[in-house]
Amino acid sequence: MAWKAIDRITPADDDGDAPVLSEAVREKIRSFFPRYPEKRAALLPALHIVQDAVGYVSHRAMRDIAELLDIPPAQVLDTVTFYSHFWTRPRGRKVVVACRSLSCHLTGAEAVIEAVKRHLGIGEHETTPDGAFSFVTEECLGACEQGPCLLINERLHGRVRPEDVPRLLNDPDNDRLDVPRSDLYDGIRGPTGEMEGRA
Amino acid sequence: MATIIIDGREIRCRDGINVLQAALEAGFDVPHYCYHPGLSVVASCRLCLMEMKMPDPRTNEPQWSPRLVPSCQTPVRDGLEVRFDSEKVRANQRSVMEYYLVNHPLDCPVCDKAGECYLQDYSYRFGQAASRVVDPKHKNPKKDIGPRTLLYQDRCVLCSRCVRFTQEVSGTSELCLVDRGHRAEIDVFPGRPLDNPLQGNVVDICPVGSLLDKSFLFKQRVWYLRTAASICRGCSTGCAIRVDHHEDRVYRLRPRWNPGVNDWWICDRGRFGWDFIRAPDRIVSPQICRGGEAGRVDWSSLPTMIRLRIEQVVRRHGPTSVAAILSPEMACEEAWLLGTFLRGLAPGAPLARGPVFVEGQEERFPVGCAPGQERFIIRPEPHPNRRGVEAVIEGLGGESADLEEILGRAAGGAIRALWVVGGYPRPDWPDQALLAAAEKLELLVVQDMLPGALTRRAHILLPFCAWLEREGTFMNHAGLLQPFEQAVQPPEEALPDGQYLWALAGHAGLYRAARVREMMAAGLPGFDRPHVPPEEPEHAH
Prior knowledge:
The structure holds two protein chains of two kinds.
Chain A: E1 6-7, H1 23-30, H2 43-54, H3 59-69, H4 73-82, E2 94-99, H5 102-106, H6 109-120, E3 126-127, E4 133-138, E5 150-152, E6 155-157, H7 165-170
Parallel strand pairs in A: 2-4
Antiparallel strand pairs in A: 2-5, 3-4, 5-6
Helix pairs in contact in A: 2-3, 3-4
Chain B: E1 2-6, E2 9-13, H1 19-25, E3 49-55, E4 62-64, E5 69-70, E6 81-83, H2 87-100, H3 118-126, E7 142-144, E8 149-152, H4 161-168, E9 175-178, E10 185-188, H5 201-205, E11 211-213, E12 226-231, E13 240-246, E14 249-255, H6 268-272, E15 287-290, E16 293-296, H7 302-317, E17 322-326, H8 332-345, E18 351-353, E19 363-365, E20 376-378, H9 386-396, H10 403-412, E21 417-421, H11 432-439, E22 443-448, H12 453-457, E23 460-463, E24 472-475, E25 481-484, H13 497-504, H14 513-520
Parallel strand pairs in B: 1-6, 17-18, 17-21, 21-22, 22-23
Antiparallel strand pairs in B: 1-2, 3-4, 3-5, 3-6, 7-8, 8-11, 9-10, 12-13, 13-14, 15-16, 15-23, 19-20, 24-25
């Protein structure tokens, strides 16, 4: 055919033959089944668990989830792509999210965003070559009174000034949470704290 | 029955339907994309919005609600008053149509759907001529989503009919909506293409030129196509179809609404399984074998010749030495004409129904549904008219025999003249038993479509036309008798089977299936009243 049509008939590059989810992750997903009348309702918890355990949801992981929940893989793809929270490509160990919405913008988010890009040397939706950071912007982080704000993994940093950015990003504890958090959707960690997500 | 008021007109409508369906059935042209009577309601396209009277919370007096409501999601109830003919409704339609065209490439000149596209129709009737958009268009990609289907995402209006079809009717769920908002697209999971036995229907229900059939792509502009109402011959379900043709060439088959039989759908086996009618080696003229040489004969001399040859056999060997094998590919009328003709010459002639093949297994949709919940069934009997031929043989009375018996008698020399109707577009026809029996015959008349071992042995060979080139009736697996029209002329000098059988039986003039059915009704009650599916409302979808 003379024009270019995207090939959707061949499987994606990240859709290998071997399953990617470990038995521990599968078991954690299965533990959500009794909560709902149907297995398919556990799709969102399953996606959270997989993202936490593997870092992102690959096409092969989507197929593993579909098999576990007894739904067609297309329905997993449908849900994964609906939420910008889920990554379908590998992301950095730390995800930096900047707010681009009104309150933060008025208080100088643009300069902060530029500072992050300059410091990391990457653009939006990109990951540093060493895999340390990914950078994205979001519409609102729900902390308008502290704008401009940055989210590093799950830790919120308010009133960020552009000149604070290098120090903030170099701080190894910049994503450590001071408050207790739920591990409801976390992947499985081994005794030394490393991920045991992959099969 | 409920009575509702649409634009000041009282409409009586069935209970349990929605206002949109009632309005369409009453002849109102209400634009809609996402609503399809065979699928669930999502109310996402926002084109069918209407004004509705609701009780005022203070006075309880019904008054026009300031908010527009989707008519596809509002069930009818007695006394409901709605209007589509209002400035507010028209303003909504105009805005929504403008929105749908923001990123549309306006490539109608190269679009297969042009001419039967609801984006075109609705733009013309409910939209506006000029676009106010100054920003560059966001260009969505074209995608190869399956072996038979292409997706032009740039033309899509995201009505999600195709997605709901794969979820609710085929039950295979290959299609999904990826991303959201203005970035949303229809897609498949990569490596899991749209490939199920009902997938062709998504092209039919796509209201715009987004989903296209690769085999029809760029083949014909739809405004040149004429349509004949036919019945599918792919299996014994007997789905009603439309045959789109132009200058005696068939371009595509599409489903025709037939509630209770195939609803709005047909399977791919029926939709694409008619290639054999274009086979280059089809038998197109009557031939008579003299001294081992086959020669073409004139249609006009044929009836006398056939009569003489059969009478000769009857004189020599008696009236039970002639038999016929009637194919389940024949129409009821043709079987009846042939049966009465032979019985006229040889009163005791046994008639048998030809072989019935089995193709695959019964396939029920949605895939994995509970028994009784089927929305579509593909049956393993790949013939349209087994029951019809059996009914005709029974209705004609006299001796009916099964195939093995007739072949046994032919092999034993009791049957000397055999008329075999084939027309099976399959390589496993004819089988060895039939060929062996054919060796012993004094007279073998074969009606067939494609040359093979049997046609080479025939003393008289007659062309069997494809069902798209004939008219008649088929009786489906449940005994429903359904007429089909002739869509195209047979190739070259071939005559439709009904026409030469009509002449053979000694009738003058043109063969008309309806007239033959009236003649049949004396012995076969009900054959003059076949089932004709209702017409769909003009603006249905």
